[in-house]
Amino acid sequence: MDLPLLSSILLFISTAQAFQYSELAQYIDSHQEEYVETLRDWVAIESDSSNVLKRPDLHRMMDMTADKLRTMGGNVELVDIGEQELPDGQMLALPKVVTARFGNDANKHTVCVYGHVDVQPAKLEDGWKTDPYNLTDINGNLYGRGASDNKAPVLAWIHAVEAYQALNMELPVNVKFVIEGMEETGSNGLDAMILAQRDTFFSDVDYIIISDCGWLSRRPALTYGTRGNCYFFAEVEGPKQDLHSGVYGGTVIEPMTDLIGILDMLISSNGKILIPGIREAVAPLSDEEWRMYQDIEFDLENYKNKIGVNQLMYSNKVDLLAHMWRYPTVSIHGIEGAFSDPGTKTVIPAKVIAKFSIRQVPNMDPAMVKKQVTDYLHSVFAKRKSPNKLKVTMVIGAKPWLADTQHPLYEAGKAAVKRVFDMDPDLIREGGTIPIARTFQDVTGKSIIMMPIGGFDDGLHSQNEKMSRYNYIEGTKLFIAYLNEVAQINKTSI
Ligand SMILES: *[C@@H]1O[C@H](CO)[C@@H](O)[C@H](O)[C@H]1NC(C)=O
Ligand SMILES: *[C@@H]1O[C@H](CO)[C@@H](O)[C@H](O)[C@H]1NC(C)=O
Ligand SMILES: [Zn+2]
């Protein structure tokens, strides 16, 4: 028997073997320092998508991501998604989207991992205890901007594929990647790219995996829902210019008073939304859901301490979680045109624009919400019999996303968590909005799972963001185990 034949038989035997989890996990453990170093290189790039001066760094970050995947033998493309228009009218090239493919076996499932490598701004002066772009290990926590959101999770996925390759084990599923660089500023250009590639890159994708969120506690979690968001401007316009309150105060009907008056009609002091139709649209909380919340590990005191308040809107866990994840809420963000500098100014602003948003949950519909809010504010305003003019516009209408936790994709997730962490995951939702999940669902029609590996206290978007070594390394093992579990899903149950 000649050697090539023998080795191919051996290769066949090894790939046909049962899942060799412990070999893979061992490989991950023994390469831990290498993974931390790669994360250090990635964090060192200030890929801040909100700062146009950092755009060259962002382009470099996308190139680096593409190079990494190419070195591993992936079929990689840097997809041009055009330009963005800046407020001054100038055009600026968007960072390219990196797509990659590993494996092309029609008999296997194909998963597509979504991630992003851009970051929120960060400066040492903001109150960081370490240089945000110099990954620093303190007691097993790796501090750095973008460490948890979303560079380490993206790398963990890459390393998961790399480990299979290094040990000459066949990937149990085909793996695709979509990595973007504009997530932190609204994924500019990505929707169009997904739509354009629906029948090409995405055509053979069975499942989409997003790891761009975090656990709720020390217990691993699978995320099955996110809230959407409808963002409104309410503009009240009165006199043709700002007025002196000593000279004109008492004679004019002030736009600010009108505006505050109608804003106060949006939500009661105990959190009840007053806009007719909104609460009625919300899917009722089932007994089963109530029980799920009951089982979730969540420390109310911890939560209060973290945000620095001594009282919350609700004092029991189930109510609190439900209002964080599966009920809508109104938040008032600001008033454009209002005097907000330090000191005193005796002005009557002529025009003020309130900014507020309503988090969306099933079965709310942004188009309906737009009408409900607009009609309601106009009717409340009409009762004031003000001569001022009210204009209401909805500037963002992002739908919520909800998955079925009994779907095989989630069953596979539970099995992978069980294998790696020897416990059942918390099934959680995300109060925030990850619009891309909804786009993937609407455009590709594929099932989606959110499988976070970030810790509950990672400080995303805030000072001293970190990723623990534990979450980074065990998270990599989770992804390895997950690929194997997904491969077990029956082709027919897609
Ligand atoms: C990062 O921080 C370490 C420890 O403070 C320091 O030794 C190193 O020079 C820093 N690296 C860069 C690139 O600033
Ligand atoms: C997959 O399908 C086979 C054959 O139809 C069946 O025996 C098996 O129980 C199914 N497995 C799962 C996990 O549904
Ligand atoms: Zn993110």
UniProtKB/TrEMBL annotation:
Residues 225-381 form the Peptidase M20 dimerisation domain. One of its GO terms (molecular function) is metallodipeptidase activity. The record marks 244 as: Important for catalytic activity. Belongs to the peptidase M20A family. Mn(2+) 1 binds at residues 149, 184, 461. The gene is cndp1. Binds 2 manganese ions per subunit. Its cofactor is Mn(2+). It comes from the Eukaryota. The active site is at 118, 183 (proton acceptor). Keywords: Carboxypeptidase, Hydrolase, Manganese, Metal-binding, Metalloprotease, Protease, Signal. Mn(2+) 2 binds at residues 116, 149, 212. One of its GO terms (biological process) is proteolysis. Coiled coil: none annotated. GO terms for cellular component: cytosol. Residues 1-18 form the signal peptide. This is Cytosolic non-specific dipeptidase-like. PROSITE patterns: ARGE_DAPE_CPG2_2.
